Amino acid sequence: MKIKVGVIFGGETVEHEVSIISALQAIENMNREKYEIVPIYIAKDRTWYTGHMLFDIDVYKDFKDLKKYATPCTLLCRNGKFYLEKVKGLFRKTITNLDVAFPIVHGNNVEDGTIHGYLKTVGIPFVGSGVLGSALGQDKVIMKQVFDSMNIPIVDYQWFYDSEYNETPEDIIKNICKMGFPVIVKPATLGSSVGISYVKSEVELEHAIEEAIKYDQKIIVERAVSNLVEVNCSVLGNYAHQETSEIEEVLSTEEFLTYQDKYIGGTKGKASKGMASASRIIPARIDQNMEKEIRDLSCAVFRALNLSGVCRIDFLIDKETKKIYVNEPNTIPGSLSFYLWEPAGKKYMELLDDLLTLAIKDYKEKRRKIYSFDTNILSGYVMGSKGLKGVKGSKGKM
Fold first, then answer.
1. I want to staple 331 with a disulfide (CB 3.0 to 4.6 A). Which of 107, 137, 277, 378 is the partner?
2. Which CATH class is domain 226-366?
């Protein structure tokens, strides 16, 4: 009997389309002899849909048309089993059952632990990190505070809320100037290089901050690394065991890897291949000592944030000083970083199989832990001298 996998993608996020690309890539490479795949698309208005037409990427070119034919649905648990149900007014109809969920989502409102919290509440096994790891991996400020506490190397940075900038912009700009230029201004909880600016002087700073504020309430400003080389390493595993992929050296046409580089560059007139579209050198042009340090740091980051599944850790290297800095983890990386595993001998189909196997194994392990008690302490509880009668008698009284 095949395992039914609900692949969840989309969502109300600026990385909505990137998620669609990553999800359909994964679906195309899943072992159909072993898995029955059920697509679950979250539209930008947060409505959930399913339906066979969701396998076709052309359907997403017109979201309004898609909604006419896809089936609105909801995920629920009933008698210990998991179902997708059709929603129509007060009536519900079971569409199919599911064995495991596979969220392939990117960005705020989904990758940040939101979808993971929902799946955990429903109780279904799912691929990837839990709520805490996902939330930490999305918030670049709190993430850096965790790294700093564990002596994981990071660049100098400052952060602030949009409200603080609106009240005292001069003070914030003055503090950033003390850090020195160039700097990189980012929305603190976005990915895919959305809203990021490379700032070379104070003149450019105000515009960069205002651009970042369009996307987030929290802004982070990082000191740019001189003589920059960007390398990435993917990690597969859980808190107990990790393995690392091949290391890539990322090539960019700008001072940092842009959204254009990641998802559009090199694909004129062709469908984007997600992060697989980016220009890269594999393996990275680094020596053995640096390679070992990057692999060790990748596993340290993975454990520090309590991650699971597959993630990609991005690094910044000053090629003159040989200093390595952790930039950020991507808890659900674009294209699931399959392009880093294939050079290491793990085909995409095998990577996906490993992720699903790990999710089911972790679910079984967690089921052995105690999360609630069979006894009900309320069974003999009396509310005041009148018990429940006192509650009934207080109706309408404030």
1. 137
2. alpha beta
